[in-house]
Amino acid sequence: MIEKFPLRPVSAGALVSVALASAALLAGCGSSHHNDEAPPPPVAPANPSVAFMTDVHFENVYGDFKSAQFAGIPTKDGKNATIRTMYAQLTSTRLFNENYFAFRSALDDAYGKGIRMVALPGDYSDDAQPINIDGINDILREYQAKGMRFFIAPGNHDPNEPYDDDEAGKSDFLTKDGKEQKVYATGNAACKSKDPTVVCTDQLKEQGYESLIGKLGDFGFMPNKNDLYWETPFGQYADNKYTYEAAVVKGDLKNRQFEMCAEGEGGSYKAAGEKALGKAYTKCSSIIDASYLVEPVKGLWLLSIDANVYIPNGNFDPANPKSFKGFDGAGNAGWNKVLTHKKHQMEWIKSVVDRAKAQGKQLMAFSHYPTMDFYANQTGAMKDVFKPGAFQTARVPESATTAALAATGLRLHIGGHMHFNGTNDYQDTAGNYLVNVQSPSLAVYGASYKIVNYKDADTVDVQTVALNSVPRFNELFPHYQVEYDYLQGSTNADDIKKRWNRAVLDTTSYGAFTRFYFGELSRLRFMDEYWPCEMKEAAMALDAKQMLILSQLQTQVTLAQLAQVPGVLPLTASCAAKGVASGTVVPASQLTADWAAATVKATALATAAGLKLDDFAAISAYEFYGDFHRTVYAGELALRDMGATRVSAYKVLMGAFPANPASIVKIGDKPSDQNAVNVLFQNQFKQVFAIFKGLGSAKPSDHFVIDFKAKKLSNANATGLSFN
User: Fold this and answer.
1) Of 605, 604, 642, which is closest to residue 623 (Cα–Cα)?
2) Distance (Å, rounded) from C-alpha 198 to C-alpha 274?
3) 301 has which bridge partners?
4) What pLDDT digit, counting tens, does each position of 586-644 carry?
């Protein structure tokens, strides 16, 4: 089970009495009513801060599988570590284990700063299994007992599907011998066939909406007696008179459903949709919408939007509409599909915005998904340069989606999902101004949380709190050492492929650990998945000094001739198609002289920036592509970790390429090996470094101020680094 701390019994009503909340008799939207037994909470500050902790991906590292087959790894203090392997972590876009400690650290930090309200915009769990939901439930109640309030929005990992999945599980839990153990829910085919190699327990079942809200209702999903106001998208209160008793009725799950069809939202929207589509809507069923609006303290409205869209698929069975197999996952749908499949939400959001403005409420909206381009407007360039589908560009909201959200009048939205730190804004011709704050994950490089605070009605301060120091972050490292030793000693081909760099266990802080993890994630996964062959070879072979020289190189020596001049440039023609030489062919040895001439030019560029070529040589290929991916995820937080010298070196590279590089000659979809040695690199990496610059000189994302009246973002971090 999860590590226990002394808890005092506390009721749902009493929880808020120790939280920052406004006087119990103050009305939110009309009059409010509270149970006479609930003690009145203290008066809140005029402008309370809210901490946003996104994509926690909580896994209960000391949870209980409730299985006689496998209890995890016994520890010296009598607990059992139920953890995933280090290899699984180093090849995943999220950590599974150490974020357990990071979450506690973030809560402690926020509590120490006097923050008593925490929003969790989705993926608070890693796949909503009972073992993990029970664990995070324990932690949230522990901190609630200290006076904190929590407000959850669902993410695509919680739930994975709208209904329970009893076939789910993971194949990579770590054993005491350093091996992998499969643990699946009892409905899995391996469990039904009694596979002796599989541990079967419904602690690994992935829960749907009904189960999750039933367990976590106290964290915003259901009304609290001391909230001043609470509503769902499904109707206002009679005569606009709010009561807790009426809210309980509204909160009943049978009153929080809408019709989802494969083609779009049904219900009152079906006829118009069918007319526009020219055919009938199909595969329709009722789905829960877990959205809510809450006023926990006087004047502050938190709008938790359930932007999950689970669209019925070809496996949908009208006779069994609650089968999880009948729905696609929500990961790529996001706000693009909200516009077509949750039309009621758009109307509700506009209503909330209008009422917040009329009543002078400080509105903070949050959902799991970003509302606009989260790649600092580099999405188009990234699609052009990298492999199709690289960097999950399918998840970028369409411009029409952003425009539709801005048209509701919504001004501030905090999102997650991409595990990115970033900010973007949008203004339409009607003057609507929307700011999207991307709150980073606690489970990746750049692990941080956001503190959002209204300074006045039109000014919001946003601070990013980095989790560089996390107590106990290396508590599980001895178990990974056993895994490492096993993999090193194994002669099994699959085990050999899973060997990882043991240096990760030498890291001395959570910040250093996540930085190392991201370098390995880049090496083991991103470079293969995202980078075209010839770009991958260059990125993984060249240090920044060689890149700078190559940016200046002018030669007629071709890729096909590189093998004749080993030692000049660590590149090959292995990714190119074989072409036929034409025209004048210069000797391969000419590359040596051309490289020397390019080195002189590179030296001059470095000197002009107050640098030496050795400063560039210090940036290995591993560091370069790691820095690129870290900047994709962490934005200006990554530049802070690079330091001024490295940032300056990259700025030189960003401006070093020819204005108009020679075009690449192709044979089919591959570059020809008759291209000159410099052509591919200068053409492709000019674009790579332009994207790199855009990512590292985006809208402020560390500490900044939003001025809604002036419609602008201002950097409040005077020491921040940028590629500008």
Assistant:
1) 642
2) 47
3) 363
4) 999 999 999 999 999 999 999 999 999 999 999 999 999 999 999 999 999 999 999 99
What is the rounded distance in angstroms from the CA atom of residue 67 to the CA atom of residue 70? 6
Digit-coded pLDDT (tens) for 282-315? 999 999 999 999 999 999 999 999 999 999 999 9
Q: Which two tokens stand for residue 88?
A: 């699984």
Which comes out higher in pLDDT, residue 521 or 45?
521
For residues 218 and 230, what is the distance between their CA atoms, to the nearest angstrom? 13
3 band by pLDDT with thresholds 50, 70 and 90: very low
Please report, for residues 114, 161, 311, 418, the alpha-carbon distance to residue 340 in angstroms, rounded to integers and kept in the order given. Answer: 41, 19, 11, 22
Tokens of 666: 């192709």
600 Cβ neighbours under 8 A, 6+ residues apart: none
For residue 384, the tally of other CB atoms under 10 A from its CB is 9
Secondary structure of residue 476 in the 3-state scheme: coil
Rounded-to-integer distance, Cα 127 and Cα 58, Å:
9
Backbone angles phi, psi at 496, to 5 degrees: -60, -40
Whole-number CA gyration radius for the chain: 27
Burial of 140 (0-12, 13-18, 19+ CB in 10 A): buried
CB contact at 8 A, 162 and 209? yes
Distance of alpha carbon 234 from the chain centroid: 29
The pLDDT, as a whole number, for residue 34 is 36
Cα separation, 368 vs 538, in Å, equals 36
Please determine, for residue 15, whether its predicted confidence score (pLDDT) is greater than 80: no
Mean pLDDT of 74-100: 97
DSSP 125-139: BSS--HHHHHHHHHH
Which residues lie below 8 Å from residue 89, measured CB to CB, with a gap of 6+?
95, 96, 97, 98, 517
Structure tokens at 636: 């200006």
SS3 568: coil
Q: Report d(CA 105, CA 53) in Å as an integer.
A: 11
Characterise 164 by phi-psi region: left (phi > 0), alpha (psi -120 to 50), beta (else): beta
CB 55, CB 94: distance < 8 Å: yes
Dump the DSSP string for 323-353: -GGGB--STTTHHHHHHHH-HHHHHHHHHHH
Please identify which residue in the block is written with the tokens 């101004």. 433
Q: Can you name the residues that pair with 165 across neighbouring β-strands?
A: 206
DSSP per position, 295-328: EEETTEEEEE-------B-TT--TTSTT-GGGB-
Please provide residue 303's backbone torsions phi and psi, each rounded to the nearest 5 degrees. Answer: -105, 105
Tens of pLDDT, residue by residue over 484-502, are 999 999 999 999 999 999 9
Cα–Cα distance, 285 to 327 (Å, whole number) = 11
CA distances to 110, 157, 186, 442, 506 from 81, rounded to whole Å, are: 27, 22, 21, 20, 21
The CA-based diameter of the chain, rounded to the nearest angstrom, is 94
Residue type, 178: G
Q: Tens of pLDDT along 314-357?
A: 999 999 999 999 999 999 999 999 999 999 999 999 999 999 99
Instruction: Give the tokens for residue 226.
Output: 């001391």
Q: Would you state the structure tokens that stand for residue 30, as one six-digit string?
A: 């009309």
pTM metric for this prediction: 0.92
The CA distance from 674 to 678, in Å, is 11
Instruction: Tell me the C-alpha distance between 720 and 640, whole Å.
Output: 7
Give the closest residue to 82 by CA, choosing from 192, 204, 195, 258.
Answer: 204
Q: How far apart are CA 164 and CA 201, in angstroms?
A: 14
